[in-house]
Structure formats: C-alpha cells, structure tokens
Amino acid sequence: QLQLVESGGGTVQPGGSLRLSCTASRVTLDGYTMGWFRQAPGPEREGVSCIGSSDANTYYDDSVKGRFTISRDLAENTVFLQMDSLQAEDTAIYYCAAVPPRISSVRAMCTSPEFVELIYWGQGTQVTVSS
Q1: Which of 94, 108, 109 is nearest to 22 (CA)?
Q2: d(CA 98, CA 48)
Q3: pLDDT tens by residue, 64-88
Q4: For residues 119 and 131, what is the distance between their CA atoms, to the nearest angstrom?
Q5: What's the CA gap between 80 and 86, in Å, rounded?
Q6: Are 47 and 65 in contact (CB under 8 A)?
Q7: Rounded to 5 degrees, what are φ and ψ at 110?
Q8: Nearest to residue 49, comparing CAs of 85, 3, 96?
Q9: What share of the chain is helix, strand, coil (3-state, %, to 5)?
Q10: Quick one: which of 6, 12, 32, 76 is 20 to 30 A from 25 by CA?
Q11: pLDDT at residue 104 above 80?
C-alpha cells in the first residue's frame, strides 16, 4: 500500500513563496506519475501540476503557469511543488497524488483524475495566502 505524506504548507503573504514536498515510505516512486491537486471550500478538487518520469514531461494548470514548478528527486523519493508569487486565490488544501506506471498520461491525471483506474492520495496540507 502506497502512503504519501505531504509537508511544507503554511501561511504566507501575497507575493510570497512556499515549497511543498511529497514523499513515500517503503515504495519507490520511480516510474509513478505524480501530481499536485488542490481544493478550496466549495469548488471541486482541481489538478495543479503533474509530472511524468522525467522533468521534461509536465503539465500545469493555466492558473499557475509561470509561478509554480513541479520537480522530483528520485534519490530522496520525493516530489516537490515550488510555489512563487502566491495569490489569495491559491489558498486551498493541497494534495499529493500518485499513479502507478503505465496507467495514465500526465495530462489525463491532472485534468481527469476521476477516470484514472488507480490513484493514491496523500492527506493534504493547508496553504493560506493572506495579508
């Protein structure tokens, strides 16, 4: 059973930065398609950014392009989400997700997770952007 643990959330002022981390124990994330999703009160969970086996294979929602960067470190078995120029609209609970190899494309995972055959979720970490 894959268990994902997120960290790095918190409260930051508009224009500030945060770096989220997602790691797994006992299971290597090598080959998994990884992603970050967020859910604010009311709206449905939305895909923020997803990454394949290489840093060249990434997807970003239009709302975060140019501000967020997803990356992975195989040695640390960790996926990161660097969030810069944060805005109040970025306030949400951020969830890490993992899809086993060969089940989903990067774009499909981020845009239509409800159709992915198998997806693991972390418990979420709160990000609050407020002055």
Answers
A1: 94
A2: 14
A3: 999 999 999 988 899 999 999 999 9
A4: 35
A5: 16
A6: no
A7: -75, -35
A8: 96
A9: 10, 45, 45
A10: 12
A11: yes
